[in-house]
């Protein structure tokens, strides 16, 4: 218990400890992450604001187990993962996390609902993913209705607007009830009006479902929709804005 306010400390879902990531450039290595430390509590909506080249996407990829750090540690729900084997990392990516990218990455030959269902197929009933075919279909329908695509479930990506594609991507990300939803410039490819609707949707997902969200962005408007805002400069997390 906190001796000051008597409240239990929030549960930490994600923690970065001294993360360093270098990339070769000519004869030298460029240090993109320079000892990053911070944590994200369960149910928190955190945005990391940074300009191009600040290291924010590299950080998200390391935190999301798409890349490995050169030094430091990543912990999910208290489990240290920087040195975890690839099979364990792949399992966690499928069951405990999800990504929403700037360019959607939907399968063009699949309908909206099929694109959402593919996440459950990859998880294969592990973790909190729906186990039965009936449960998977009901979950996909529920999520597409929640993101405002009730009438667009059978449409393919080419038949959807950019905002609608991103809504499908968000529904897909929520399919397996991930511990954390990583968003990499989720509105960077959208006009301001459509982006505002995605901001509102992410706020609703966080508030209504208690979904933990970590987003990186160069857009101040996007960052301001989060409950907690951090600033990244030159490979380190700076002050909270």
Describe the structure.
The chain is of the alpha/beta class and 241 residues long. The chain has two domains: 1-90 and 180-189 and 196-241, 3-Layer(aba) Sandwich (Rossmann fold), CATH 3.40.50; 104-178, no CATH class. It is built from seven helices and ten strands. Strand 9 and strand 10 (236-240) form a beta hairpin. It is globular. The mean pLDDT is 92.
Number of domains: 2
Beta-strand segment tally: 10
Main sheet specs: 6 strands, mixed
Summed over residues and divided by their number, the pLDDT gives a mean of 92
Radius of gyration: 18 Å
Q: End-to-end span in angstroms?
A: 27 Å
**Which regions are unreliable across 5 or more consecutive residues at pLDDT < 50?**
none
The general outline is globular
Per CATH, the class of the largest domain reads Alpha Beta
Provide the structure class: alpha/beta
What would CATH call the architecture of the largest domain? 3-Layer(aba) Sandwich
Q: What would CATH call the homologous superfamily of the largest domain? A: P-loop containing nucleotide triphosphate hydrolases
How would you write the strand order of the largest sheet?
Answer: 6-7-8-3-9-10
Strand content: 25-35%
């Amino acid at each position: 218990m906190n001796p000051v306010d008597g409240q239990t400390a929030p549960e930490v879902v994600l923690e970065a400890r001294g993360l360093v990531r270098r990339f070769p450039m000519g004869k030298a290595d460029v240090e993109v992450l320079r000892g990053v430390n911070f944590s994200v509590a369960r149910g928190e909506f955190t945005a990391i604001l940074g300009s191009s080249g600040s290291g924010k996407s590299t950080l998200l990829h390391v935190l999301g187990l798409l890349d490995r750090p050169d030094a430091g540690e990543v912990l999910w729900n208290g489990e240290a993962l920087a040195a975890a084997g690839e099979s364990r990392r792949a399992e966690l990516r499928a069951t405990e996390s999800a990504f929403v990218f700037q360019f959607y990455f939907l399968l063009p030959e699949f309908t909206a609902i099929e694109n959402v269902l593919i996440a459950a197929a990859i998880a294969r009933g592990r973790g909190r993913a729906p186990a039965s075919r009936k449960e998977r279909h009901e979950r996909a329908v529920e999520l597409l209705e929640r993101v405002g695509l009730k009438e667009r479930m059978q449409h393919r990506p080419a038949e959807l607007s950019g905002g609608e594609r991103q809504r499908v991507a968000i529904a897909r990300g929520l399919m397996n009830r991930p511990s954390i939803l990583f968003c990499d410039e989720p509105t960077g490819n959208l006009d301001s009006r459509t982006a505002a609707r995605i901001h509102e949707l992410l706020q609703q997902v966080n508030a209504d479902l208690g979904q933990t969200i970590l987003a990186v962005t160069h857009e101040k408007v996007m960052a301001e929709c989060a409950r907690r805002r951090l600033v990244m400069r030159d490979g380190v997390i700076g002050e909270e804005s």
